[in-house]
Amino acid sequence: MAFYRLEKILNLYDGYRRVFRIGERSLLLIQERDRRYLVLNRCPHKDFPLHTGTMVGSRLRCAYHAMEFDLANQGKCVQHPLQPGAQLFTLVYDGVDVGVELPD
Ligand code: FES
């Protein structure tokens, strides 16, 4: 596993969103209502990017077909529970930075 620094903690605020590219992955870092989420920037429905979506509480609504993924509930799809959910990653805090650990 390797640690990838994403952002300084002091730069995070409610409404924060930023896309990070790590290798083949595009990851979306979000802070909303004092909670932080790191999600694969790819909708599990049709693979469109999620960073153009909107946050409604803890739910990320995809801009393409309006499916909502509850990031506070393992990324589950709200409208279609059997639909694969958004893929979440665990944030890792290291001093003043927040990042993620991914396989080498
Ligand atoms: S591509 Fe996201 S809801 Fe269809």
Can you tell me the CATH topology of the domain at 30-90?
Rieske Iron-sulfur Protein
In CATH, what is the class of the domain at 30-90? Mainly Beta
Which structural class should the secondary elements be placed in?
Answer: mainly beta
Q: What sequence of helices (H) and strands (E) makes up the elements?
A: EEEEEEEEEEE
Q: What is bound: which ligands?
A: FE2/S2 (inorganic) cluster
Q: What is the number of E strands?
A: 11
Provide a descriptive summary of the structure in words:
With 104 residues, this protein is mainly beta. It has a domain of 61 residues: Rieske Iron-sulfur Protein (3-layer Sandwich). Helices cover 0% and strands 48% of the residues. It is built from no helices and eleven strands. The chain is globular, with a radius of gyration of 13 Å. Bound molecules: FE2/S2 (inorganic) cluster. The site of FE2/S2 (inorganic) cluster has 8 residues, from loops.
